[in-house]
Amino acid sequence: MSFNSLVFLIYLPIVLLLYYGLPHKFRWIMLLVASYFFYAYFDFKLVFLILLTTGVSYLGGLLIERTNNQLHKKLYCIVAVGVSLAVLAIFKYFNFALDSIVSLINAFGGNVEGVFVKLILPVGISFYTFQTLSYVIDVYRGTIKAERHFGYYALFVSFFPQLVAGPIERPENLLPQLKAENKFDMDNIKQGFTLAAVGFVKKVAIADTIAVFVNSVYNSTSPESISALSVIVATLLFVVQVYCDFSGYSDIATGCAKMMGIDLMVNFNKPFKAQSVTEFFNRWHISLSSWFNDYVYLPLAYKSIGKKNMRLRHCLNIMLVFFLSGLWHGAAWTYVIWGCLNGFYQVVESLLRKPIDNWYYNHKNVNRNATWRVALRTVTTFLVTAFTLIFFRANSVGNAFTFIGNLFANWSLHEGYWQQFLTETTLTAEYAVVVVLAIALLFFIDNMGSFSRGKNVLGEGTKVLWNTSFIYMVWLIVATWVLLIASGQSSVFIYFQF
User: Fold this and answer.
1) Percentage of the chain lying above the pLDDT 70 cut
2) 131 and 194 together in one domain
3) Do 416 and 276 belong to one domain?
4) d(Cα 102, Cα 150) in Å, to the nearest integer?
């Protein structure tokens, strides 16, 4: 079931009424049934996969905690983690691996025909798999106790607001909240509704509006003929689109949970204000970045302590993390290249940061926080991350390199160049105004007072503003959203494919 559907408009109020209407001891049953119904709405067959992953990780956690033998603990952890990763690998990466092997053999003179196995890609499998992995690993590390109540654990894995596209929750944050007796609180309803409405604004009013122009360029059947200006505009617009699409989903998820008195983790924190690529990923998809940091980078860094070539090991660890991050996003080399480029950026930053600080800022006593320097670092960060998104959005590696080549070749001052740009992007003067207004709306939303993902949304400093003009705008957009759904013009969320 998608958030931007008429079914969800009926589903959510029913869930909220049952949640607050039922005695606390029955709420987990209702939420579990509601969450599995939410997931089964995509495809009923997918329920068995999430049940398998849930059951294996639950049993693994119990076995790990019940034994004092370290070898047995490690064995149980490896099996539980291995089964979950095997399910993910088979359904998401099997065909990608086969295709890559066949291509490699043929590149060295072989003559092997490609094989394709028809498999369903389960919606949200990357998200709930990582959630179960964090649980098993944390139990193994001894940082949390194994959850003995299977119902609550199954609800932790399948909690419908964040089930299919995150944020990737940690057991120590979500499990206690699912067990808590949350009483009806009108402030939670207001804040949750406002946050969810903001998410719908980002998705429908901004992301879906911009997607039309991005798709017209990136889905072109003749990418080699696309002008440099069209590539630049489409890529910059895609940065805004993917941000509004995914952060919009996170806002809706957080808002729905907030209506039940449950606080999900912040997944985005104004990433376009970042002054480095490293800072950008500390602000973008925070739940995934922190997951890789806690379960991949830090363990590797810990194992490197005391060994030679620490700097080299640090760089290799960063590259491995971003290689895996790219692979996590999708079973295609375009995503892998996207991840590796961002890893390379961060390696360069880590190597240059100290020399630049010592030579430029400290030695010459330069003001790092001068307005123009902050602006320059911010714009540079935006542009280099936007460049990597050419690979993220392109339909193939070949298309990505074609678009990059166009940036250096397809420039012209002839009279028809501007008309070519308008044709390629399907932009008209009216639509250009709509896009500008959509981006202005995003700037307004992301810079509203103390707005912070469901926490202190109605803070004292901005209470009047939230209760008047902003709320009216939210209701207006929600009405528009309903009309768009009714007319069938809404699109699926980008991160559903991951």
Assistant:
1) 83
2) no
3) yes
4) 43
Contact 456, 450 (CB under 8 A): yes
Catalytic (active site) residue 329: yes
Q: What Å distances lie between residue 11 and 1, 4, 161, 253, 411, CA to CA?
A: 9, 12, 12, 14, 51
From 24, 285, 314, 329, the catalytic residue: 329
Q: Residue 454: pLDDT above 50?
A: no
Evaluate if residue 321 carries a pLDDT over 90. Answer: yes
Q: What tokens were used for 326?
A: 């790219």
- Which residue shows structure tokens 């002054």? 275
Q: What angle do CA 436, 437, 442 make, to 5 degrees?
A: 100
> What is the DSSP code string of 359-371?
IIIITTT--TT-H
pTM for the predicted model, two decimal places: 0.85
pLDDT band per the 50, 70, 90 thresholds, residue 456: very low
The first and second tokens of residue 345, run together, are 């950026």
DSSP string, 16-37: HHHHHHS-HHHHHHHHHHHHHH
Scanning 89-163, the segments in alpha helix (DSSP H) are: 94-107, 125-141, 150-158
Span 6-36, pLDDT tens digits: 788 889 999 999 999 999 999 999 999 999 9
Inside any domain, residue 315: yes
Q: What are phi and psi of 119, to 5 degrees?
A: -125, 145
Q: Is 469 exposed, middle or buried (0-12, 13-18, 19+ CB in 10 A)?
A: exposed
**Is residue 1 in a domain?**
no
Residues 470 and 370 in one domain: yes
Residue 280 is assigned to a structural domain of this protein: yes
Q: Rounded distance, CA 250 to CA 199, Å?
A: 7
Taken as a whole, the chain contains a residue count of 498
Q: Which residues contact 269 (CB under 8 A, 6 or more apart)?
A: 282, 283, 286
- Amino acid in the structure at residue 428: T
Of the two residues 62 and 124, the one the predictor is more confident about is 62
Inform me whether the pLDDT recorded for 443 exceeds 70. Answer: yes
Task: Give me the domain span that covers residue 159.
Answer: 6-184
Are 160 and 206 in a shared domain? no
Domain count, the chain: 2
Give me the residue label for tokens 């280099």.
384
Whether residue 237 is found in the same domain as residue 343: yes
Furthest-apart CA pair in the chain: how many Å? 78
220-233 tens-digit pLDDT: 888 888 888 889 98
Q: What span, in angstroms and rounded, lies between the C-alpha atoms of 286 and 170? A: 12
